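Appendix C: a fully annotated inverse folding record. The material below is reproduced so that readers can follow the format used throughout the book. The structure is listed first as tokens, followed by the designed sequence.
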């Protein structure tokens, strides 16, 4: 393991280098952002520990640069107490965690090791998914989707993926990317609903230096960063009307102009969009442009909810069990027949994401190497629907009325379990870190 420590205070650099060395971790040090950029160009690192504020090029500037240059190294920010807002900004821009001065160096080393380990496990899981075909299932519906992926991947057609939250829309998008001629290029993804409207345009198109107050240097947008690869626009139904016309123009002309710029830049990236909403309904309601809908809907893949392909549940459950057994270093080898039957009969309104959460929780509380019915605790996993149709329908309004309360409680409980660590909490909840931060602000959650 090799870490880059960047801080303008020499005592902090030396302290962290010494404590990392005691754990057998190699560390390079940089006294400012420019030195950090040089070292990042010249050396491979597993993580970066970086101060928010430094003379000249600060930590926020380095993170922006790392994103523009395509670095995917996890970053932990060091923040003075008064710089916490800057640390939160860094999280929004791609940092994984932050610590506040003064700090315990032993605790920081533990957090670095945990972050690198979780990153490596996630990368390993992604590689395993790629080797196994990524989109797991043998039901007729999934076999049909896999055939469609094979047919459309070699083309440049724009693809629209629809399905409920948690069904695996991004997994399908990645499968299309891997099977396409763009597979050697980047796969850039953005959740439209997880980015504030005032930042969304600059995220996609980038901007020139001086385009607006605070634009101290040029930013490369995702349309450019995805050059030679695939740009995945998740939750496209949340795209503001004001921006839809610009996306339409990009799809028609395959060119963009950065904010504040005049130069026309050709775009060489495949566009895949996804939504859990009915775009046809949004068109009728006047919140989604009809012409953009037809531009996106060249090829459509509809992913069925998990409750409509129950025959895939045992296969998915076995895969999830094997994945978390490695990540959690526990020995759980399977399910009792009663537990597996209960999973097959559960409605799974949270789809594969809910199945993952149920199994992960069951593995934590299992008293043996086999998960039984009591370990699953299906009624607390989400919105439970009774088998009786009349009762199920009568429960829906009640669930809708308490959705915000349930979501807020789930976020608060997860943050408490992880002692405020947003990265781990977001992973447990099955959402992105950016979405979690947005929800924390929306619900006024105080940690």
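Designed amino acids, in order:
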């Amino acid at each position: 393991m090799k870490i880059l420590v960047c801080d303008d205070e020499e005592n902090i650099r030396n302290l962290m280098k010494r404590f990392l060395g005691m754990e057998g971790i190699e560390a390079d040090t940089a006294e400012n952002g420019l030195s950090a950029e040089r070292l990042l160009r010249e050396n491979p690192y597993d993580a970066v520990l970086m101060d928010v504020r430094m003379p000249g090029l600060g930590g926020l500037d380095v993170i922006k640069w790392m994103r523009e240059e395509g670095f995917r190294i996890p970053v932990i920010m060091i923040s003075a107490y008064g710089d916490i807002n800057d640390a939160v900004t860094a999280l929004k821009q791609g940092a994984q965690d932050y610590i506040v001065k003064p700090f315990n160096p032993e605790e920081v080393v533990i957090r670095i090791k945990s972050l690198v380990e979780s990153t490596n496990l996630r990368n390993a899981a992604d590689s395993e998914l790629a080797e196994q075909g990524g989109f797991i299932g043998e039901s007729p519906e999934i076999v049909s989707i896999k055939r469609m992926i094979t047919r459309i991947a070699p083309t440049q057609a724009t693809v629209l993926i629809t399905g409920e939250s948690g069904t695996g829309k991004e997994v399908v998008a990645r499968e299309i990317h891997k099977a396409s001629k763009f597979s050697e290029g980047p796969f850039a993804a953005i959740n439209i609903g997880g980015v504030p409207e005032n930042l969304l345009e600059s995220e996609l198109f980038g901007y020139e230096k001086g385009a607006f107050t605070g634009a101290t240097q040029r930013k490369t947008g995702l349309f450019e960063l995805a050059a030679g690869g695939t740009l995945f626009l998740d939750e496209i139904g949340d795209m503001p009307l004001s921006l839809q016309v610009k996306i339409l123009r990009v799809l028609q002309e395959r060119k963009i102009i950065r904010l504040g710029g005049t130069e026309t830049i050709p775009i060489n990236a495949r566009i895949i969009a996804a939504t859990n909403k009915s775009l046809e309904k949004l068109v009728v309601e006047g919140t989604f442009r009809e012409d953009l809908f037809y531009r996106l809907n060249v090829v459509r893949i509809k992913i069925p909810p998990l409750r409509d392909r129950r025959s895939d549940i045992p296969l998915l459950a076995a895969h999830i069990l094997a994945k978390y057994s490695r990540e959690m270093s526990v020995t759980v080898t399977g399910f009792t027949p009663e537990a597996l039957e209960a999973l097959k009969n559960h409605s799974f309104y949270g789809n594969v994401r809910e199945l993952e959460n149920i199994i992960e929780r069951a593995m934590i509380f299992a008293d043996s190497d086999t998960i039984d019915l009591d370990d699953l605790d299906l009624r607390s996993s989400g919105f439970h629907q009774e088998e009786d149709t009349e009762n199920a329908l009568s429960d829906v309004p009640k669930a809708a009325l308490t959705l915000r309360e349930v979501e807020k409680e789930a976020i608060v409980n997860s943050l408490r379990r992880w002692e405020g660590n947003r990265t781990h909490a977001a992973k447990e909840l099955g959402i992105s870190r950016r979405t979690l931060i947005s929800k924390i602000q929306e619900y006024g959650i105080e940690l």
